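pasting input
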Amino acid sequence: MACTFPMSFINYMAREINCKLVYYGPGLCGKTTNLQYIYERTSPDAKGKMISLATETERTLFFDFLPLALGEIRGFKTRFHLYTVPGQVFYDASRKLILKGVDGVIFVADSQIERTEANIESVENLRTNLAEQGYDLDKLPYVMQYNKRDLPNVASLDELRQLLNPTSQPEFEAVARTGVGVFDTLKATAKLVLTELRKGST
Amino acid sequence: MVNPQMVMYEEEFNQIQAVVDRLVRDANAKVVFIVDKNGQLIAAAGDIDNIDTTSLASLTAGNIAATGGMAKLLKENEFATQFHEGEKANIHIQLVGNRVILVVIFDSRSSLGLVRLRVKKATEELNHIFESLLKKVAEPGADSPFAEITDEDIDNLFND
């Protein structure tokens, strides 16, 4: 049975709420680039160290991690822990582990036509891996990002939408390398997670 | 089954902090901290000003998750204890009640034997505390500060 509990950690003592967001998507779609941009553009007092467990060729091996402090809600500090998964197909065991305790998912799609199949496979893999952990993708805060919109050989938005986002989740066009759409995607996901928290507590 | 939401109240936090504070002294440790399996730091004690506890918490959880994944492949339940020996610092990692992780960082002023002994006792105490915490969280009517937040509250977070 699917479980829809929010996994966030509410600490009444420290007056903090901690949430976990995971960037998912096929290899080289720009998950790490999203995090790097957020890291570069966030003031030092609002972020922790960014950790990347990567191979020598800078491919994500296990995960990237970036802790962010967003500000206060009703006297509670809101902290978001951003994680990426390794996109390469054969790292599936690691991807499953990183989804544990997730509060919200951002799917980063690679808009290039030749990556269409990889995108579809990755969305399906996300759904399967979440189900294994007892989550239902349709009940989780979930945002779609169409990345690399600046490249010449991209699929049309309509096509991507139809293939990857049939349930019309919030979606954003992005160029993560230059930051286009990166914060819009993050904010939309954070909002969904906080809204879900409110629902979960009533 | 997915674990329910983790909530920390003042009463249990103080109990946990007391165990962690005592463990630093009893084990001659440099730093002791507790992380949940999702990588959220719960409590820390010792020389914590000079280390990045947030990063350590996340990496510890990743480490335990990876080790748990290996255990599963070998049809083991869990590998509850891990020990990493460095030139100066050593790390002892202990899974508590399959829910939280107790981490002890120590140097040559202590020994693995002493740390193991003290961790064993602390683990029992922590098990009791987390059990009662979980019962409390499962009780109906536990109020959440998020029941009353408005769209405006959420929007205000992003007005920078």
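fyi Chain B is about 45% helix and 20% strand.
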